[in-house]
């Protein structure tokens, strides 16, 4: 089985790091309980407290896509509207 690994980079606007961090932390328990979630780990950049990184592993891309439309993800988007400067996502496949 090929799992899907994701690295999501979330950069908060200046002055909004605490809000974004609090809202990201709210995602952890619900997401880890979702079908297909293997790991869902939140990190902060040691040199830039406005830069958060999720390292995620999912059983399939389809299950990850379901996660992206889950109610807690929609609530997160609403809560951080205007507080996030940028958001990027890299989809990766483990090779070794």
Automatic annotation (TrEMBL):
SUPFAM superfamilies: Dimeric alpha+beta barrel. The lineage of its organism: Bacteria, Pseudomonadati, Pseudomonadota, Gammaproteobacteria, Pseudomonadales. Gene3D superfamilies: 3.30.70.100. This is Antibiotic biosynthesis monooxygenase. Residues 4-95 form the ABM domain. Keywords: Monooxygenase, Oxidoreductase. GO terms for molecular function: monooxygenase activity. It comes from Pseudomonas marincola.
């Amino acid at each position: 089985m090929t799992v899907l690994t994701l690295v999501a980079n979330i950069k908060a606007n200046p002055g909004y790091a605490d809000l974004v961090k609090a809202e990201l932390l709210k995602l952890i328990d619900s997401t880890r309980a979702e079908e297909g979630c293997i790991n869902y780990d939140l990190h902060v950049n040691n040199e830039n407290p406005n830069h958060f990184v999720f390292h995620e592993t999912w059983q399939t891309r389809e299950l990850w896509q379901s996660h992206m439309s889950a109610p807690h993800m929609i609530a997160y988007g609403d809560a951080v509207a205007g507080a996030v400067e940028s958001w990027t996502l890299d989809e990766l496949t483990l090779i070794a």
